Amino acid sequence: MSPLQKRFLGIDLGTGSLKLGIFDGDGIERATASVAYALETPQPGWAEMAVERWWSALVEACAKLPESERAAVRAIGFSGQMHGVVLTDAAGRALRPAMLWPDTRAHALLDAWPDDPAHPQPNPVAPGMAGPLLRWVLQHEPQVAQAARWALQPKDWLRVALGGAFAADPSDACATALAAPDGAWDFALINRLGLPARWFAPLAASHAASGTLSDAAAQALGLLAGIVLATGAGDTPCAALGSGLADEGDALLTTGTGGQIVVTSRSEPSARRGLHRYRSATGGWYTMAAMQNVGVALEAARGWLSYDWALAYADAFAAPPSATLTFLPYLSGERSPWLDPTARGGWLGASLGDTRGTLMRSAFEGVAFALRAGLDAVRGTGIGEGEFASEGTRDHAQTGQPVPTLKLAGGGSVDARWRQLLADALDASLYAIDCPNAAARGAALLGGLACGHWRMRDLAALAPAATLVSSPGEDAALAQSPGHPPLGQPRAQPLAQRYARFIDLYGRVRTWFAPAAR
């Protein structure tokens, strides 16, 4: 087989689905498959998944790939949802369902990571990270804690299930709240929290070989036994790698269940409240604003309004913006820039003249504004006035980055009308990358690096093409809306003023539901 006939499989273990991509020796996508699944919420605020569901999704998705493509796969790389945790025995068998990043049960245990604007944590800590969740297990499931040998990140569990080594990589470890910003385990903190040091797997580079595919897994997936398994990385750094981010200041917007704005850096970024600074899949760094409520909030609004997606888009972008209606999308708390796990959302300012379309449009706009709040934190341009603003990132104006352009990744940003609203709300030009499965592509590139097909110096030449798809205008989404407001209703303010109202409303209602959320 010639080098160009070799194939590399990328597995992207996401929150709502598992995606596969097979890529050739030039990094070109040859086949894809996916299987969706739903989070399990056995109690309010919990977010879990039986790992058997991940395995069955992998088997089902692999069966959809052409046999000829599977036969040519010579290495596998892994991309995984970040922060959650899988507790296993010594053989890698899960002892309980995986606990995932939207989980808020450990909110009351964040006192171990004190934080204030003057002395921010190295990274923001959320209740769905491995650190708080493992503290909860110690307190509430001591028998599971006693039996556990490993506390693995989701993609690390999957790699072990395929025959790989027990290992962690810096890009995932640094997002557990149990490691230094460079990804090295902070065993002093781990001991102080009473967590067993045995739980934490040794670190390996994302592109390192961490085992080979077992005979049993190969038979189940229709792949060759013995092919190399790369350690893998978190989904965000994999998406950045797959999207071709390489230069200082390159920026990526991913929209899926949640949303991330990633800006690359060659050196360690400074700590900035409300933002994350994590290791990349190739040894560099990135600054990230992480918004929890993007696809999950739009899916909830669509369901509440009894829309299918085609009609949701059509009605929403045919409706003019409301002069009074605002949607706060914080249905599961929020991370960037608010660091507020108790935040909750909904529509405010509704009137009798509002329609389903008006409500759905407001949902799209509210999500776009939530993303803008995260981008403002990256830019250091401020989020409002007075005391509320001091809790965000206004004081970091000197360390912000301008971010005039963003590459787009993720399945939630393909509609042209939605892209235009995002460009207007974010005040940034958006470039669609010629790779709809960026995280799976990044994982496959790690597999190719692990088996020696590529070297680090080859990655720049493998970057996918990017096409300008929308540029910010003078509230283009408003100008393109047909018709006029319903009789007796005022015309909406410009988008910038509606964003200011969104920020003001969040500041006013942020404490209303805090006791109930806790």
CATH hierarchy, class of the largest domain: Alpha Beta
Largest sheet: 7 strands, mixed
In DSSP terms (H or I, runs of 4 or more residues), the helix count works out at 18
Total count of domains: 2
Q: Could you report the average pLDDT, rounded to the nearest whole number? A: 89
CATH superfamily of the largest domain: ATPase, nucleotide binding domain
Determine the fraction of residues in helical runs and give it as a percent range. 25-40%
Could you say what the CATH architecture of the largest domain is?
2-Layer Sandwich
What name is given to the CATH topology of the largest domain? Nucleotidyltransferase, domain 5
The helix/strand class is alpha/beta
Q: Kindly state the number of beta strands.
A: 20
β-strand amount: 15-25%
Outline, from the CA principal axes?
globular
Radius of gyration: 22 Å
Residue runs with pLDDT of under 50 for 5 or more positions: 384-398, 476-488
N-to-C terminal Cα separation, in Å?
58 Å
Structure report:
The chain starts with 6 loop residues before the first strand and ends with a helix. Helix 10 packs antiparallel against helix 12 and helix 11 crosses helix 12. The protein is built from 18 helices and 20 strands. Mean pLDDT is 89; it is low at 384-398 and 476-488. By secondary structure, the protein is an alpha/beta fold. The chain has two domains: 3-239, Nucleotidyltransferase, domain 5; 295-431 and 468-517, ATPase, nucleotide binding domain (Nucleotidyltransferase, domain 5), CATH 3.30.420.40. The strands form five sheets. Strands 1, 2, 3, 5, 9, 10 and 11 form a seven-stranded mixed β-sheet that branches. The protein has a seven-stranded mixed β-sheet with strand order 14-15-13-12-18-19-20. A two-stranded antiparallel sheet has the order 4-7.
